[in-house]
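The material for today's practical consists of a large collection of protein records. A record pairs a protein's sequence with a compact description of its fold. Instead of coordinates, the fold is spelled out as a row of discrete tokens. We will come back to this pairing of sequence and fold again and again. Here is such a record, shown just as it appears in the course material.
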Amino acid sequence: MTQDFVDPVDLRVEARSGRRSPRRLLALCRRSLRLVREAAPRPFAGSVVLQVAAALLLAGQVWSVKILLDAILGTADGDVRPTALVGPVALLAVLTALTALTSSVQSSLSRYLGERVARSMWRRVLGAATAVPLRSFESSAFYDRLRRVQANALSRPYQVTRGILTTLGSGVSAVAVGATLVGIAPVLLPLLLLGGVPLVLTSRRESRLEFDFDVDQTPNQRLRSYLTYVLTDRDSAKEIRAFDLGGPLGSRMDDAYGTYLGSLGAHLRRRTVLSSLGTLGTAVVLAATLGVLVLLIARGELGVADAGAAIVAIRMLQGQIQAVFAGVQSVFESGLFLDDVEEFLRTGEAAGVEAQGDPAPERFDAVDVDDVSFTYPGGAAPALDGVSLRVEAGQVVAVVGENGSGKTTLAKVLAGLYEPDAGTVRWDDVDQATLDRRSLRSRVAVIFQDFVRYALPAAENITAGSPHDDDRVRAAARATGADRALEGLPDGYRTVLSRLFRGGRELSGGQWQRVALARAYYRDAPLVVLDEPSSALDARAEHELFASLRDVLAGRTAVFISHRFSTVRSADRIYVMDAGRVVEAGDHASLMALGGLYAELFTIQAAAYTEPTA
């Protein structure tokens, strides 16, 4: 399967094509509410209750202000005793305290709810990222989308939900306060509702600007993230200092940040202009509303208490109306990013469905690679071009060639990590493409030259996700010679293999190589693929490894990739690759007798270890 990822221009077109309609708003709300409700049902329900409670408390404050003003005016006229103020004052104080308490609890609950949503989204995003085909990681467009998803998947779904909750709470508040205002001066409510129109007109453009800016800046943000990683990574630290790269790379980071800040400044100016226009329009409507209120007071249509309550209601209602439209804007703006996230998640789901198939055989008689071709995305020439070979059960098969000949790509195809563009890989006449990918990978133990050194306990570096068994861990370490290094660690196999974490220890390159080999041994798969398995071993260790390779494999089938011809002499069959093709095949003796590329390269390497004759 070839996975294509959306170009930034197409993303912007796609975003603009999504009409801002009530139907789209409802769709975004349903999707986000479902996500948040599934991630944290009880905190979400509590948040909704608190939003409604806060809205009702706000309306209650307006009524309490009116009651208090009536009491104050009655006391001033001598109609009511001063003690009559105690009740209204106490009521306003209690409502104000409850509002503050509700806000405090809501803030804490909101934070917890956000983290629960973030955890749920991380689970989904990481699941998708590990499900997409390995080929996707050869595409820069994939990395751009992955960065945006990593940045937005954690925050945007909850931002949509928070926008919904804000809209809900503010809407309830607006209805409650609006009802209060209607009871005082009905004509003022329609004027205040008009105050949201300018925000509606400007918010859509602001949302599009924000999404376009994020898409445009993705490559720059990725570059800054990469430079930050290189300048602070432990593995890079020695070379950064050896070549004094701190200054040049730091300058490049500063230049990239400067470019970003320039674009950000222009972007924020455009948003500020739009926001100011919306706010100015709302202020004009508010001024007109207050003017009408003054006119009503001047005509004697409103008393002092009603006027005071109306002023409070107007101020509160204006804030709630603005919050409603701000919440709607937040939903739409985050919805654009959420679409991007959902598309990525669908990609992972589709990849998972397409990877399903029949279970891979637990054992096989032969694996055949038949006329396989493969080209990397954007590649000018195929990495594999009509490659054919056969691996029979119990054999040790070597694939040799110069750098760039296609050896590692072939290893990935054999391991089911790449699907060929043409040709087939068959397990006992069963096309590998019809097999379930997870099942297939469980039948192959593959260790690459650039294997991962996990900053985890030694035992977990060996089990690599397989069920843990102490006896098997120790057996794998003994079989590959890793036991001598691991058993001498402070906590043995529980020691973290990195100084990144407290109590951790570091291994040498050769020791790590043995741990990686133990990882392949532990999996107990019928097919073992080893890519340059001795690259970090010294001459003695390399000799010991290949001398005992058949014993270590314990009858399993092995394909090992190497550019060291001295290590492949004992292989049952040797395939020689050049420019993506298999150009020779046979055992060591027959290939030397052939006098072709194998014999030439073997002789060149052997000459480096022999004294020149007189």
User: Anything to note?
Assistant: The longest helix spans residues 246-298. The first strand starts at residue 366 and ends at 374. Strands lie at 366-374, 384-392, 396-401, 422-427, 430-431, 444-447, 527-531, 557-562, 573-578, 581-586.
